Every structure is written in structure tokens, then in C-alpha cells.
User: Fold these one by one.
Assistant:
Number 1:
Amino acid sequence: MTTLRSSFLASVICGVVLLCPMLVLGQSFKSFSFKSFTFKNRTVAVDQLGDCGTPQKPQWTSALADPLPSWNDTASKQSIIDFVTKVTKEGSPDFVPVAERIATFDNDGTLWCEMPLPVQLYFAIDRVKALAPMHPEWKEQQPFKGALEDDIKAIFANGERGLLELMMASHAGTTTEEFETLVKDWITTAKHPQFQRPYTELVYQPMLEVLAYLRANGFKTYVVSGGGIEFMRPWMEKAYGIPPEQVIGSSIKTKYEWRDGKPVLVRLPELDFNDDKAGKPVAINKFIGRRPIMAFGNSDGDFEMIEWTTTGKGARFGLIVHHTDGEREYAYDRKAGLARLDKGLDESPKRGWIVVSMKDDWKTVFPTKK
Amino acid sequence: MTTLRSSFLASVICGVVLLCPMLVLGQSFKSFSFKSFTFKNRTVAVDQLGDCGTPQKPQWTSALADPLPSWNDTASKQSIIDFVTKVTKEGSPDFVPVAERIATFDNDGTLWCEMPLPVQLYFAIDRVKALAPMHPEWKEQQPFKGALEDDIKAIFANGERGLLELMMASHAGTTTEEFETLVKDWITTAKHPQFQRPYTELVYQPMLEVLAYLRANGFKTYVVSGGGIEFMRPWMEKAYGIPPEQVIGSSIKTKYEWRDGKPVLVRLPELDFNDDKAGKPVAINKFIGRRPIMAFGNSDGDFEMIEWTTTGKGARFGLIVHHTDGEREYAYDRKAGLARLDKGLDESPKRGWIVVSMKDDWKTVFPTKK
């Protein structure tokens, strides 16, 4: 500890004396905006300096004293830190340049709670209820009847076709701007049926820490989800710090046209892309154009994304969140229907993917109530 | 001038004394990498300081003393600078936060030369020649016969159907990684038939300066082109400083499958998306999820992109590059076939879009020969 401190002090003095005031600066100004020149500091790393200015051994990292405080000190946590350390260490054989530090995250069940039903389905049901007065026929017609009566079994009785019909009726017909407003209004008022908290509070605190930790280390974090791209974008920047252009998802087609004297994009009741399973690497290639070096998922819908990520050249990292915590959240895997995790559990040990047990690896699940 | 200089000096002294060493720093270290903490300086702005630390009137900007040196001092150049100044000035009614500073650029004819034929068509022709030994039937079959004989008229004789057929035969069938290698190999060796320079040297120097100027002012610059997304990504980072994830274009479908013991994405001979005309706002919405505040194009294929950009709320900017320089490049507009600029010329004055005359507004067209 003394050694560490004196090295730290030596580094600072060395820095100041030789006019390398990065260390001091980093601590003095958290966010200093100066016209087209914004100084933002998210991590302060103090390294032992050789020829003053050449970072050598990392000695101390302030914001990252423990970058993952909601994780128990298990092998899972260590594997994340070890990977990030080795790919960000200049000169290391595993070093990855900042531009190639791409990490992709599934959303439902990986970043937020997806049980008892995917959140977007609750949105669809509420939207069908709101539209019902204009569709008297829905009272007798499935899957709409089921939605109006909160009869989930009836909704699922018609399989994928029924679900698709429900999604199109509830997600199409508006302009993109109108839809964004609908989502924003809904997400700020709707509550989870069991936890009675807004869905955006039922995000996983340990995963929020992973997102922030990666970004502080130069990663670009993306969501790659089977959920609707325009259902996710309106709230993800606030909830996860992920901007719209880094949110990839399933989509319906849109059409450019003039309405009321201005151009709009109208959402059509036609599937454009299903961003699930083998669709995920396809979408990653189309939207990002680079292969990620880290991928995080929780179900077999994420299998190909993690496979694509971890079979690239160089250091690679795959992680599966295993829902083992029936007390604090939900416990499910091989028989979970839409959220099934089966092949992933079998293959992870062979492929070196980390399987996180929510029960054992996570100190907390959701953020503290506000 | 004296006033300016003494204000500058006062600012620096004030900055140093009160431990705001940004100004000094900015000039001392061009790019200082310090473990997960990289300091990159692209612009140094010196403002008159009120309460030391609060930027007020901009006095001097070093890197940007003239941010657009290859532009003549005309109204076009001034309109770009005026717009960037007002949207980046904190407290201005037109101020736009960094996250929303999105600028989109067409590629062919806007960032690089598209005459006498779009560059990608030369690639397609060369690729058809390379594949010809495996397709003896092409010798007698259009549009392949035309491609093999450099008979451009014959290629175009079958209209869009013929072109599409040529593109699919030359662009599909490989994996995405193989295709990237093909493009990289070709783009580093192929030369423009008239200028006898690599195509990546036939980019517009004045536009490179606009790209750099915008990025130095917090903009995210995107390419939104009718060209193939995977034809453009391999070289645009080097040529324009635009990373793959900010390149949007037309695409063919890909399929995820295993080949030779590893997963690959195979390029299928099937159109996925045509990123032209009304497709451009559709793609912008899908890929970026935000409406740009600046858009740059050169043909009627860019009309809807510029329209969508300039009809949003707040300060907006649209610009059309008009090819008026038959001596240094090519002169074409209303009758230019694929590259036709007709509606754009009629509508620009009514809509406040800037029409740049290459002949009058640009000091130089291409970068100096290396």
C-alpha cells in the first residue's frame, strides 16, 4: 500500500514537473466545457511513469477502484475485468485499438427484466386497448380479444402468426414521431405487474455497471435485440447511456410521404427485419460493419451473436446471464418458451463463454428504489 | 488586430493563473495517449473570458484560422461557417447539443468523382472479367458481354434490370470477409480512366475540409449513399475519416452459415435495400434514429434526404454540390442520367438550400498528387 501510494505520488509529481498535467487535470475538472472543446473525464488512471510521459505499470484507477460494485467477487466478475484489462493494455498481445472495441448486448433478460412477459408485449396490449374503440370487431377476434381481456393464453394460442398480427396492429399506422411519443408516454407511466415499478427501473444494476465500465475503457456499447428498434430508442439513452444510433433491433417497414404539409415516415404493417438468432450477426454486420469483441446475452436467441463474436480472430468474450434467482427476480432456462436458454447452457463450457448466475454472482439485481 | 491579440493574451494568462490550463494544453499536446485516457485536440478555441472560465466572445481559433482553405471566399463558404458557428455557440437560440449534431453526406458526386461512370460500376465490370472463366455463357449474354467488352452502352441497354443483374453477379456469392478483401485489393490498384489516379485520390478536397471542420465541432459525420454499403466501408475510414458504423448504403441480403469449420456471412444475390431517393430518409431513420441537422448531396437522388433534414425543427442546413467545372472535373446536371440534378436546382432557392458551384466556390477540386 505504501509502495502503491508513493508510486502514485511520484507519478503525479513527475507529471506536474514535466508539464504533463493530465493526472491533476483529470481530477480537477469533471466536465469542463469550453466552446467547441469539451473536456470529459470518466476514468483517471495513474500509471507508473518511466520516461516521464510513457505509461508503464498501472498503479491505481480512481473511478474504477471497483468498477463492478454490484457484482460478488466471483470468477464471473474477474473474467470481465481480466478481459477488459488485457485488451486495453497497450503493448499487450491482446491489445485492441479503441475503434475496434465493440460490445453488443441483448436487451430482454440481459439488460432488463423480461418476465412474466416481454415488456413490449405489455405495450402492445395497452395499445390495442387504446385503439379498440376504432375496431369494434376486435371484441370477438383473436388475438385482439385476448389482449382486451388480458388473456395471455389466448394471445399465444395462435402462435407466431397471432403475435405478429398483434404487433402490427399496435405498432404500425402512425408516423415515426407519433410512435416515439406513444412509447415515451407509456414507458414513463406503465408499471411491472409484480414489482410495481416502472420497467426502466427493472434494469440490472450489475449490467449497468458493465456498460459504464466498458465505455470508460473506450468501448462502444450497442444493444442488439429482438425487440422493436423504435420501441427501444426513445428510452435507452437515459436508461443505459446508449444513444439511438447504437440501438439495433427488429423493425417494420416505413414509407416516406407528405402529410399535413410536411414529410413524415409512416410505419407500415409489414415486417422489415427480425433481429433474432441468426438475424443478429446479419444485423451487426449491416449496422456496425465490424465484428464485436464482446457479446452479452441470456437466451438461445443470442446464441449466434455470441458465436459470431467469439469466433473472430484475437481476444474475444462471450457472456450469458443465467436467470437463477427466483427470489429476487425469476428463475428460468431450458423450458422458458420465448426466453429459452438451452443450447447456450450446453455449449458455454465448451466454448469458454461465461455463464453468470444471477443468484450467486450478483450482489444486487435492480437499482435501489428512487 | 492589437485588440484581438491582447484579448488572446489576457485569456491565456487568465487561464493559466486560475488553473484552467486548457488553452496551453491544447497547444502543447497534439495527441497524448495515457492508458484508458486519450487526449486528442483537434480545435483550440480561445474565447474572451468573463468570469474566468466562462467563455464569451470567440476571439481566435487556431486549427480553424481558416477551416476551409480550399474554398473561395464566397457566400457558400460563409454559409457553412455561419451555420456551424450558430449551432455550436452555447446560449445561442440555435444551439444544438453535441449528441444531435448529425451530418449526412451522399458519396458519388458529393465526396468523390462519379464520372464518367460511378466507381462501383468499374469494380463490377472488373469483377465480371475476373469471374468470366467460370461463366463461358457470359460471352454471348448481356449485360455480361458488354462488361467483358467494355461496351458501356450495351450494359445500360437493358435498363435497371440489366444493371441489377450485373451487380448481383459481381457482388454476391462470397462471404463478407472475402468481399472486403476483394474491394480493398481493387481500390488500391484501380485507376480512373481519364485522370489516371486511384479513385480514393479523386475525392473533393473542399469536402474533406467540411468533414473535418464538422467533426472538430462535435458533429458525427455519416455517409448515406446509393452505393453498396460493403463496397464503401473498406476504404472510407482512411479516405474520409468515417468509420464503418457511420457508412449507410444500399445492401444485398446476407445469410449466416458455417463454412470450413467457422461461421460466415454469405452475400446473397438478392437486393436488401436501395438507399436512394425516398430510401435515404428511411435508412437514416433506421440506422441513426435521429434526423440530421445538415445534409449534403449533388443529385436528385439526394433530394428527399435534404428535404427530410431541412424540414425538421430548429436550425437546418442543406447543400447541393453543382458540377459546373468541365475543366477541372466534369460539368453536368439536368441531363445527367443516374446523376441527374434537376428538381434540386429548381427547388433549392425556394427552400434555402445552398447550391455550391464547383467552378466558382472551390479553389481546388482534388487533393494534390502524392
Note: Chain A touches chain B through 61 residues (CB under 8 Å).
Number 2:
Amino acid sequence: MDKKYDIEDLCERFKDEDKVALARLITLIENEPDSALEIFQHLDDIEHESYIIGLTGSPGVGKSTLTGQLVKRLVEKDMKVGVISVDPTSPFSGGAFLGDRVRLSEISCHPNVFMRSLASRGYKGGISRAVFDISLLYEAFGMDVIIIETVGVGQAEFEIYKLVYTTILILIPGAGDSIQAQKAGIIEIADIYDINKKDLGGDEVAVQIEMMLDDATATQSGWRPPVIMTNSIKGEGVDELLERIWEHKEYVELSDLFEEKKKRRYAYKVKDAIMNKIESILLNNLFNEEDLKDIGSKIVNNKFKIHEKIHNIFENVHFDIKKE
Amino acid sequence: MDKKYDIEDLCERFKDEDKVALARLITLIENEPDSALEIFQHLDDIEHESYIIGLTGSPGVGKSTLTGQLVKRLVEKDMKVGVISVDPTSPFSGGAFLGDRVRLSEISCHPNVFMRSLASRGYKGGISRAVFDISLLYEAFGMDVIIIETVGVGQAEFEIYKLVYTTILILIPGAGDSIQAQKAGIIEIADIYDINKKDLGGDEVAVQIEMMLDDATATQSGWRPPVIMTNSIKGEGVDELLERIWEHKEYVELSDLFEEKKKRRYAYKVKDAIMNKIESILLNNLFNEEDLKDIGSKIVNNKFKIHEKIHNIFENVHFDIKKE
């Protein structure tokens, strides 16, 4: 079958709101990053804007359950919702432990809902690339809300906040030092704090965060991040969480922030694409796995000379990169 | 003061086992990556090999306390120990919440111990760069053991396992789904599993991991990763953890693995250095923050054309990279 025809056909069905076509286009984009160019050439007459929300927090804080609760409420309001879950998956087996996801399968069958789980490693062009491209596809599909759910601890995962308009940080009580660590990780970028599993005693954490917000210079921007408490399994507090999300959305849309956040989103994508391009040129040609292993072997008995070796590599490699 | 003289002088004092000189060289390497070249030119006559251990796990599992317990036992055996703690720190404030570290201050004053905390973001050349360079400095300083303690969830943080010889994954019981997620993240690369906070009921997790190891193809390598339980605050099980570490060390050193792991360590550093070099060339010259913002602005009302825009950028940029 002619592949061009296939993409064109898929895009036609996609425009008719065919979820199977959406699923196949996502798979295509996941496996063949370059296909995005052609896919969006068929979709560039679409005019639609989704509101993009990020849900972040350490493993085990209840992100998936909370996402499920939010999605349930959004579809009750006749909204179309797209979810991207970034899983910290093995780079070896390639398989995710999808226990969490299974629970969401009921809600994901709703005609207005589409969910996709991504492994956070082993992606051609990295996880940010796939998350951006899929969120763009969701926008073209006419989603009202897109939720990007991610472990916000890592360097790469953390950057995903640059792709969303409202960032929700989920914490849990009782973890003691862990709260400190969690806080330190991502706390200033959160627009809303949610203390989940509140029955474990969330008051103390809430007080800690409020105190921190009192000190923070970041809050001078005009938005004081609210601190709320939920129990995602029982669904308690989720309505309030949603209210706070709408309040922040309104705040963002009524200020210059929306334009700024959108620009940041696209600038981030462009930078990401450029870096990926260079990396693939480099690692496929000049320094492939074999070359690197070879260099490693030569250094192994001279380890303190490694910087000299690297210096020599740069002396002998010419980077001529220019814009026309 | 002549800077060259300064580095030379610091390196002389470093060779006399002056910890203040070590501290200053680390700071230099942290702030000025390029200084590593000159520093190691003064140290390349040293012959010493450290054994490098990685301790990884989600925030709150007790990595710092466990590290403290291990360090205490190592110095009791007259060993010199260097610790690198990678903190998930704010990219904005730049400040880490060092609560955990404070507790370790007593042991860190011991003459045979040196500890350094790194923020995991905002590093010139990324966190891997700093972690490698500091570990190399520790090796030159004559450390018997180096412990690299890191949150093993993120893409970048995860890769730190390529820098160590024995990887210990720390889990905690009772987190339910979280264990699933934690497991999925890093489980196949662990050489030892430690279930910390065992008083919260570690048996179930231990069984889960043992079952997973039964299934795993990874264990066919000849080393069946042991699963042990500790209570890091009370110090329970730490002696056993240390025994398992020595067993793995022996296993590694008696096989080809040691050579392989060392080659991997240096190859990783070389790749990392090359990528950093290119990134800085690119982002400082052709695509600086302003350029990217500018591109972002142009796309904001044409978002579905972003891939076309990126494609055009590549059409007009010439990458000519060649080795002599």
C-alpha cells in the first residue's frame, strides 16, 4: 500500500473524528518522528486551541487516579479530553507496568476521551519530542482539554512544564524528608498544589507549603498558587481541584501569560528538534556506539587523561554550522 | 593572583591530601567545566582506582540516611570515602533544601570522608558532566569507595548508572502503585535491591521483586541480584547491605565486567562532552534564547505548521561536521 496515501487517508478519517485514525497517527508519530511533517501538512487548515494541563509528582502520589477523576468530571461536562501519561519505563524490556492504567480503562472507552501511555525512555528524539507531537495531534483532533501526566523529578521530565499552561504539583503527606525533596524539585513552577491522600494527614504539608509560598518571590506575579487537599481514590476534593484549574485558566487567558506560555511551548519544541537533529547526525555518523566504545577502551588505562583526549577530539573535529 | 599558578598550587596541596584543596577544585570544576582539562594535566601521574557505587531511588526512600550509615561503616574500616549527592533542586532559586544533608554533617567531618551535594539542574554541561568530573577527582584523591546518590527516576538522572560499578535500588514498602512505577523505572539495572523502612512491611515488596527476578532475562548474566531489607534510621540491615556490595564487587572484579563497566563509564563521558560542546555552540550562536523566542512568536498563530517551520530551518542550516 502506498504510504503517502495511507497518511492522507488516515488524516481524512482523523478529521471525521475517527479515534482509530487518531490512534494510528499517534503510533506513526511515536515510531517515525519524521512522519510528523507530512501528517501536519494534511492538518494545517484546522483551527482549534486546547487548554493544556500538566500533572506532576513523584511515583506513588496518585497521579493516574487523579487524572481519571478529572477526566470523568470533564466528560460529564461534554468536554473532549486527551491524556498523555509519561511512564518511567525500563530502557531494557521496553515494557511498562501498566497496572495504574488498567484502572482507567473504563473511562478511556468514553467516546470523548483518548488516553496514551508513553514510556519515558528509549524514544527516538526523546520523550519531549513525542509528548509535544502527540499534544499537537490532540489539539488538531479538537480536544478541549489535554492532560499531560508525568513524574516531575528528572531533568528531562521536569522540562515538560514548558509544554503546558497550568502545572499542578501533587504531594503526599507523611513522607517527611521526601516532601522536602519533592518541594525542592519542582515547587516554584507549580500553579496549583494538591496534597493527595489527605487522610494520611495533609494539614502539616499544607502549612509548610503556605509558609514557603509566603517567602517565595515567585508569587509576586499576581497568582498566589492555591494549596488544596484531595483523596483521589474516594474522589474527595477533586471538584475543588477542577475549580482551581478553571480559575488559573481564566487568570492565564486574561493576561499576557497565555501568549507567553504558547511562545515558550513552541520555542521549546524548536530547540528540542534542533538538538535531536544534531544528536542523530553526530551519533549516527562521527561517533557511533562502536567509535565511542573504542575511545572508551583507549582511555581505560589512562583515565586521568580523559579531558586531554576529549580536548584532542575537539581539536580534530570541525563543526561548521551556518544559517543561510 | 595568577590563575594558572593557583590551579597548580591547589593540585600540589590536593596531592598532599588537603581536603580544602579538594573542595576548591570541585568548586572550580562545578563552575568552570573547562578547568577540568588543566586540573587533570597536573594529576595525570596519579595511579589509583576507586570502587564506585550508585545509590538510587525515589525521593523519600531514605537514600541520604542509608548513605550516612554506609559511610560510617566504611570509615570504621579505615577506608577513604567520597560522596556525591544529586539533589533535585529548583532551577529558579538555585537553593537546595539541605535538611537531609545536615544530618550527615557529623560523619562528613571525619578526615577520611568527603561529601558534596549537587543540584540536579542548572549545571553548565548538565549534571552527568559534573558527577563524572567530581568522581574522577575523588579517584585522584585516593578514595577507596565513591558513593553516587541520586534520584533514579528521570531520564538524565537514570543514566548515572553508566558511571558506577554497583547499582543499588532502594524501594519502600506500602506505596502500592508507587512500587510498580519505581520498579518499572530502573529495576533491570539494579545489582542489589534494598527495601528500606522495612518496619512498614517489606515482605510483600520483597516477594514481588523476587518474582520479577525469576521472570527476568537479565538475571541470566550470572549474578542474581539479592533483595535485602534495611531500616536506615535504626541502622538495621546495613551490615548485610555492605556484605552484598562486597560480594557484587568481587563478582565484577573477577569477570570481564569490570573492564566493560570502566569502558562504558569513559565512553559515556566522551559522548556527554561531545553533546555538550555542540549544544553550547548551537545555543550560544545560531539559536540563542532570543532567536528561539522569535521563532516561537512566528509560530504561535500557525501552530500546525511548526513541523514545516522546523523542516525549513534544517533546509537552511548547514551542518558540516568532520573528523580530520
Note: Confidence is low (pLDDT under 50) at residues 89-102, 180-185 of chain B.
